[in-house]
Design brief:
Among the domains are: 151 residues, Quinone Oxidoreductase, Chain A, domain 1, CATH 3.90.180.10; 132 residues, Rossmann fold (3-Layer(aba) Sandwich), CATH 3.40.50.720. It has 11 helices and 20 strands. Strands 1, 4, 5, 6, 9, 10, 17, 18, 19 and 20 form a 10-stranded mixed beta sheet that branches. Strands 13-12-11-14-15-16 form a 6-stranded parallel beta sheet, sandwiched between helices. Helix 4 crosses helix 5 and helix 4 crosses helix 10. The radius of gyration is 21 Å and the shape is globular. The relative contact order is 0.14. The C terminus is likely disordered. Keywords: Metal-binding, NAD, Oxidoreductase, Zinc. Belongs to the zinc-containing alcohol dehydrogenase family. This is Enoyl reductase (ER) domain-containing protein.
Length: 407
């Protein structure tokens, strides 16, 4: 067994009963088995789908430690491990393992494995100080990336990146993003970086400036404008990425597609859709879904985001506030009086309240990342400093406020 100096036990947060709250537990250290590695968690996302563990919608059984946006350092490996070594910076997302013998696996489509395990859903995840991962579902993470900014790329990031690159579309086509939240703010950035004419759709005026700064060339306020008509003025959308979980809204976007267009479903909606199938025939439309990606997909997503300056914005919570972070995973959007600063301006002027898409993360008492990030929108008052005097690559105050990539 190759291992660092590790504790006999560690802290984790689990759901122990259906509909209950996260409970702090002490777990005994276990050395990794064949095809497993143990990782010290530096950051782990709180995703909306973590509620599937709380409500047991998938019937995966309890107790369970949630969390499937995991970044950390390898601290123990099995003697037979050939891919990873102690000290490696790694990550793992929704896809937790594959069997290698079912038909999809034999075709190399590991994400569709018939016996797939899911980090933090069917197996214990990253709401903990340490996590045991299946090595076939682990990707390398560059050491020069902030773990708290990188972890969300392993779920929201790879879902938007991987799905869009597999659509039947080409640079210059219109790609619309419905919902500018956790998935949506990354979808806008990826669509722009891939060369698409990116259109953001939201239900109020509040997100316009933010969406434009993230890369949208057009913004549709669905509370004031007819979304379908606006899209058709542009010739229709070749792809509409649905990132907000409202089935009725999603299906209402179908007439906004161009001939041969694709409605891409990325959010799990509780309500049911009733779709007029005739439109799919007469205009050659299609409806597709996409469930994140494999370890290789995650690596490619992280590398693409690094090269193109695509960022997740984060806010940190200590690990002992795991329940608070979980409860904030879907807090409401708040309004913006002025746009966010562009390019190298880091904070807005002192009298500005700016709407930011952020994520919550876990740090220890020294500010070291320890886990838990979630998507939300927060209103943060501007600082007193002149924006021109601040380092755009540094953090200021105890809130993480990520600058918008240069346009």
């Amino acid at each position: 067994m190759t291992t660092a100096s590790n504790p006999k036990s560690y802290t984790a947060y689990q759901f122990t009963k259906k509909g209950g709250k996260l409970e702090k537990v002490t777990k005994e250290w276990k050395d990794p088995d064949v095809h497993q590695i143990v990782v010290k968690v530096l950051a782990c996302g709180v995703c909306g789908s973590d509620v599937l563990v709380e409500n047991q919608r998938l019937g995966t059984g309890l107790p369970k430690t949630p969390g499937h946006e995991i970044v950390g350092d390898v601290v123990a490996i099995h003697p037979s491990e050939k891919q990873f070594k102690v000290g490696d910076r790694v990550g793992s997302g929704w896809h937790g393992s594959h069997c290698g013998i079912c038909k999809p696996c034999r075709s190399g489509d590991f994400n569709m494995c018939e016996n797939e395990k899911i980090d933090g859903v069917t197996i214990d995840g990253g709401y903990a100080q340490y996590v045991t991962l299946q090595s076939e579902a682990v990707c390398w993470i560059p050491n020069d990336l902030d773990p708290t900014e990188t972890a969300p790329l392993l779920c929201a990031g790879v879902t938007t990146f991987n799905s869009l690159r597999h659509m039947n579309t080409k640079p210059g086509d219109v790609v619309a993003v419905q919902g500018i939240g956790g998935l949506g703010h990354l979808a806008v950035q990826f669509a722009k970086a891939m060369g698409f004419r990116t259109v953001a759709i939201s239900h109020s005026e509040d997100k316009r400036e933010l969406a434009q700064q993230l890369g949208a060339v057009a913004y549709i306020d669905s509370s004031e404008q007819d979304t379908v008509k606006e899209l058709q003025k542009m010739g229709g959308a070749n792809v509409i990425m649905c990132t907000a979980p409202h089935a009725n809204i999603m299906q209402g976007l179908i007439p906004g597609l161009a001939v041969g267009g694709q409605l891409l479903i990325l959010a799990l909606a509780e309500d049911k859709a009733t779709i007029d199938l005739s439109a799919l025939i007469t205009r050659r439309l299609s409806i597709r879904g996409w469930p994140s990606g494999s370890a290789k997909d995650s690596e490619e997503c992280v590398e693409f985001a690094k090269q193109m300056g695509i960022k997740c914005m984060v806010e940190k919570f200590p690990l002992d506030k795991a329940q608070e972070a979980f409860e904030h995973r879907d807090t409401a959007s708040l309004t913006s009086d002025q746009p966010l600063p562009l390019r190298d301006e880091y904070f807005p002027p002192s009298n500005v309240v700016a709407t930011l898409i952020v994520k919550h993360a876990v740090v220890d008492e020294n500010g070291t990342p320890q886990g838990l990030i979630f998507h939300r929108t927060a209103t943060i008052p501007g600082e007193e400093e002149d924006v021109q005097t601040l380092d755009p690559n540094a953090y200021h105050t105890d809130r993480i406020l990520e600058r918008i990539p240069a346009q």
